[in-house]
Amino acid sequence: MFRLLSLSLIACLVGCDAKSPAPTVAAGSEAGIEVLFPVHQGKQLTKLRLAATELEKARGLMGTKVLPPNEGMAFMYEEDTQMLFWMKDTPLSLDIAFVGADGKILEIKTMQAFDTNTTSSTSDKVRFTVEMAAGWFATSGVKVGDQVDLTELKAGLTARGFTARRYLPLGN
Fold first, then answer.
1. Cα 170 vs. chain centroid, distance in angstroms?
2. CB atoms within 10 A of CB 105
3. Taking the domain 32-166, which CATH number applies?
4. Quick one: three-class SS letters along 103-150?
């Protein structure tokens, strides 16, 4: 009887000491718009916020006074289209890259702080855009024809709780 009681006590203590696995938390609940994801643009490693909801895209970088080096925002869309952007309430000038569904940079333009005129892509094959501080693309050597890493973008979208294939085709 004593032996059985001792074994039960030991089993209980061992069980109490064992570390339980970390709880599984939905990625979207932890990875909000403020989270930066590593994404290569050409040969440059950048850190991007991913705007995927309509509210996030409407807000964009409004109110942002400074972007740290190599930080920016990607605006994700579900279909190819001609893009139109403006700089209402955005106190810093930005470069915008218009990017195709294959990750190829199609155009790069500069937008001036607080400008309420629209800046539009020439192409109607734009799937997403990337905004960086004005002059970043030229000084970083990233140019039209370079690739934005879709695998890294998809990983960021997934970490935010979005279905990546809604924004980027499978196989890319």
1. 17
2. 21
3. 2.60.120.1140
4. CEEEEEEEECCCCCCCEECCCCCEEEEEEEECCHHHHHCCCCCCEECH
Helix, strand or coil, per DSSP, at residue 86: coil
User: Contact 42/142 with Cβ under 8 angstroms?
Assistant: yes
The two structure tokens encoding residue 26: 């939905």
Can you give the pLDDT of all 172 residues of the chain as single tens digits? 444 434 343 444 334 433 333 333 344 344 688 899 999 999 999 999 999 999 999 999 999 999 999 999 999 999 999 999 999 999 999 999 999 999 999 999 999 999 999 999 999 999 999 999 999 999 999 999 999 999 999 999 999 999 999 999 866 5
Q: Which residues pair with 99 in a beta bridge?
A: 105, 128
Q: Are strands 44-51 and 71-81 parallel, antiparallel or unpaired?
A: parallel
Supply 169's token pair: 């085709």
Integer Cα distance of 132 and 74 in angstroms: 9
Cβ–Cβ contacts within 10 Å for residue 107, how many? 17
| Count of C-beta atoms within a 10 Å radius of residue 140 | 18
